[in-house]
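ok so for the tutorial part 2 we go from a plain amino acid sequence to predicted structure tokens. step 1 is just haveing the sequence, like this:
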Amino acid sequence: MGELLRTALNLYRHNIRLVLAVTVPIVAVVTVLTGLGLGEFTARFNPGPPVRDAEIDFAALELVTVPLITAILARWVFLMRRGEHVDVAELVANALEVFPAVLFVIVVWLAVSILGFVSLIVPGVYVFVSWYFVVQAVVIDGDRGFAAITRSASLVRGHWWQSALVGIGFRLAAFVPQGLIVLAFTPVARSTNAYGVFVVAAALTSVVAVPFLAIGATLYYLELRDAADSSARA
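step 2 — the prediction. this is what the tokens look like for a chain of 234 residues:
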């Protein structure tokens, strides 16, 4: 996992311009639209926003921001690994083209994970890890619908605990800069009594963490994919 973290961080750092070029516009557009729609930029600071607003922000993040950025960077990492030329416009166009397929598998993955977690907890956690790579299955292997879910589950099978630990490792690594940003901006939001400052902080955490997690997940997916291919040939 240490090697995977280093590789993801090096790809992130050495290609920061490309990463920011595809990440910042998406985060900015989603943040502005949700912020204006919910009146967050003119609201007073509230460390505990209304549940409805939190749910909408969560939906915007998990159904638009994360899958779109992941779709773009998954293809980028895949092409980089193959030594092919990478064009930002092509990456974005491809991500937009496959987005309906990506959105479908993301909705199914989250819905089943949440249902399983609410009902018995363990099934939800199992599904969350097993189906985590549905976006990569769509973008890299061209799977559609439930085939992408089957692909992710089949690659994780036999590597569930390893996959869970890798995911936890990446989440913890991303949590450090996210936490620092929140700690830096929260006193400013409180002193100015402006919830918009907190919204900007949340956007910055997405800019920092989402691409790192997307790169790491794709690198790990490719490792699982290579291992499965090697086993099939043997």
